[in-house]
Structure formats: C-alpha cells, structure tokens
Amino acid sequence: MPTLETDLTPYATMLSFTRYVGRTGPKKASFVSGLRRARQAKSGFNPHGQLVKALKADIQFRTPGTHLAAVVQAVKPRWQPLYTASTAGAARYLETLGDLDKVWLAQTRDALAVIGGLPVKINPHLGLRYEGGRAEAVRLHFDETPPGDEAVVATLHLMAAHMDQILPHAEPVLVDVRRGDVFRADPSTKPADIDRWLTGEAAAFAAMWSTAA
To answer: DSSP class of residue 101?
Structure first.
C-alpha cells in the first residue's frame, strides 16, 4: 500500500510547509507545484545527514567542533563547499550549549499533525537534556538565507503543539546552522492565533496541491 510520502495525497514535511508559509502570492502555488512534481518523480536527497551526525557526535563525546571540522573533509568534494559554509555556524551553536559535560543527547520521535486537513510530518533533528532536567527538541535550518519570521513562528509552534509525542516537557528550538543563531518561542505570541493562521495556510496548500494535478 502506498504511503503519504510516495502517493500523491496532499502531504508536507515541516520543512516544506514552513518554507511554503514564508512565500507570498504566486510563489506559493509555484512552490506547491514543484513539491508535487518532485513527489511524482520520487526525487529528493538530503545532503546534510553527515553534518547532523557530526554535530551529535561532538555533543555526545564532548569534543566541541572536532567532528564538525573532520566531516568537511570526509564528504564528497561536491558537498565540501556546503559543509564549509555550515560547520563554522554549527560550531558557534555548540558554544551556546555551555559546558558539554552537562548536556546529553535525548531521543526524539517524529509526529504527524493534521492541520486544515493537511498531514504535516514534524521531525526535529535532535533532542537535548541539560543538567537540572531542562530539555530541548532542536530543528536545524540549513538554507543559505536565514529563516523568515513566518518560518520561525510556524516551526516552533508545530513542535510545541506536538511535544508530548516528540520529547515530553521539552522546549522547541530552531537553529540557523550557517549563522549559529538560536530561536525560541516568543512568550507573548498567542497559540490560538497561530493555529488559525496555519490552518488557513494548510487548507490553501492542499487546494493548490489538488489544482496542480
């Protein structure tokens, strides 16, 4: 039986949905059409997997930046410029964690949200636990451009709304890897308002997906 990832049912990952909400006007429809074509062609490749593993290794083995530096030379030459552009910021992010002897990796789980009738896969890259019990579920942003305000709000809200499945009692965090910037939820935001906004965006996404058929 086909899955959401392989059939042509309207479906989005958190990455594609948050990229979508940051677009305006005709760019939204073009973006959704591109996602649908990619699904039909079963194309797509994640070039950042080794960087995520290196970041986790530096946290696990308390080696701030050692594995990140090594992975630039370990990847294929075509990916070295991408990794060179990302590892310096990733190392700066490691510095924000403080004493790595007091930070541990934590297991996270993916969640499947249904927003405005649209299934959205919510998948953080890593979980962290700190001395004292505080925990974070972390999503990494790898794009050349910084995440826009809409993408930041949507990412943090989606993770927070499903944290009981992802990593109970954890705080959602978005990290702009290239620049090492860390984003956390603004306590003044109103979750109900964000829910309404994302529900409308998701319904429009599903409609555009069907129109592109």
So the answer is: G
